[in-house]
Design a protein that fits this description.
The strands form two sheets. The protein has an eight-stranded parallel beta barrel with strand order 1-2-3-4-7-8-9-11, surrounded by eight helices. A two-stranded antiparallel ribbon has the order 5-6. It contains eleven helices and eleven strands. Helix content is 43%, strand content 18%. α2 packs parallel to α3 (84-97). The mean pLDDT is 95. The protein has a single domain, classed as Luciferase-like domain (TIM Barrel), CATH 3.20.20.30. The chain is an alpha/beta fold. α7 (199-215) links the parallel β8 (190-193) and β9 (222-230). It has helices at 18-35, 56-65, 84-97, 112-116, 125-139, 178-187, 199-215, 234-254, 271-274, 284-298, 317-330, and strands spanning 2-7, 39-42, 71-78, 102-107, 145-148, 153-157, 171-175, 190-193, 222-230, 280-282, 302-308. The relative contact order is 0.15.
């Protein structure tokens, strides 16, 4: 199982120091490349009170220019908000700049505020999503095409230049429900599972995906995201990472994220109640066992680690760099 970084770039409470955050994330990506990580991914949100950086492809370009081997990608771009031809051209441009290192991760979106800014009806997001996937593939086909859909009409278009990666950059689809897992199998190149759910839920989701992919005659490519922290001791991990991940989970609970809909009161969100089979956190040997267990249970090709949390502002850059080093020294070389 390969390892990647997922970085949420924000700086609560007002996003007042985002230039520093971007510099830190680029430095973290450079160290991750040296430590043996395979990739680095960024997400998208809009008008967020915590100053969430809204344009992940631009950040990907900065990271690609600062590294040589690390794959860069989005996890996820909110596809219903983007014109597919413009997005196809942007991704091709980055594919050329990075010499074939871009992965396009896409998702439906779940926050109404993201859609309001662009005048997009959130109720149309599934139809929009599926049409845009079809158009992206047509744009990268190297052929002239026309498209007559409910939301998009395109006539006799040939998108140039062609991507470096053939037949096109991978399209990974974020999924947190069974129907979205089947959608990822049918129209995507990989599934990316949510980092906030348990091992049992992740395994069930990936099994649903695998069955659908095999029925469609495709090779399943499961990708997992995890909230994880490797430290010198369990106590240190809980002290450094615990408050950050709990702040993020409280934000998701307040915003109705599926994974926390069963939580009745905010007081239930404690490390003691949510850590088991959800967080990978502790000393290197403990975390190595957990990463191997997750890999065996899910068959994941890659694990994206969410070390930096958007809605807490931490952990600090220095602490993240230390953990990246530990993962490179004590985890990655020992994965089966």
């Amino acid at each position: 199982m390969k390892f990647g970084l997922y970085s949420s770039i924000a700086n609560p409470p007002r996003g007042e120091d985002l230039p520093r955050c971007v510099d830190e994330v680029i430095e973290e990506a450079q160290l991750a490349e040296q430590a043996g990580f395979d990739s680095c991914f960024f997400g998208e949100h809009h008008q967020d009170k915590d100053g969430f950086l809204p344009s992940p492809l631009i950040v990907c370009t900065a990271v690609a220019a600062s590294t040589t081997k690390l794959r860069v990608g989005t996890s996820v771009i909110l596809l219903p908000l983007h014109h597919p031809v413009r997005l196809a051209e942007d991704v091709v441009t980055l594919d050329i700049i990075s010499k074939g290192r871009i992965t396009l991760g896409v998702g439906l979106g779940y926050q109404d505020v993201d859609f309001k800014a662009f005048g997009v009806n959130m109720a149309d997001r599934v139809e929009l999503f599926e049409e845009k996937i079809d158009i992206l593939r047509e744009c990268w086909s190297g052929e002239t095409f026309s498209f007559d859909g409910k939301h998009h009409q395109i006539e006799n278009l040939r998108v140039t230049p062609d991507p470096v990666q053939q037949p096109h950059p991978p399209i990974w689809i974020g999924a947190s429900a069974r129907v979205s897992a089947r959608r990822a199998a049918n129209i995507g190149d990989a599934i990316v599972t949510t980092p906030s759910t348990t091992l049992d839920n992740t395994s069930r989701l990936i099994n649903e995906y695998k069955v659908a992919a095999e029925a469609a005659g495709k090779t399943p490519t499961p990708i997992i995201m995890r909230d994880a922290w490797v430290a010198n001791s369990r106590k240190e991990a809980e002290e450094v990472y615990g408050p950050e991940v709990l702040a993020a989970y409280r934000y998701y609970w307040k915003n109705g994220l599926r994974e926390f809909q069963s939580v009745k009161n905010e007081s239930e969100l404690t490390l003691g109640q949510i850590a088991k089979d959800r967080l990978i956190m502790g000393e290197p040997e403990e975390c190595l066992d957990e990463f191997q267990r997750w890999g065996e249970a899910t068959g994941a090709e890659s694990c994206l680690l969410r070390l930096r949390h958007a809605h807490s502002g931490g952990p600090s850059h220095g602490q993240i760099m230390k953990t990246i080093d530990l993962i490179g020294d004590r985890i990655i070389p020992y994965m089966d």
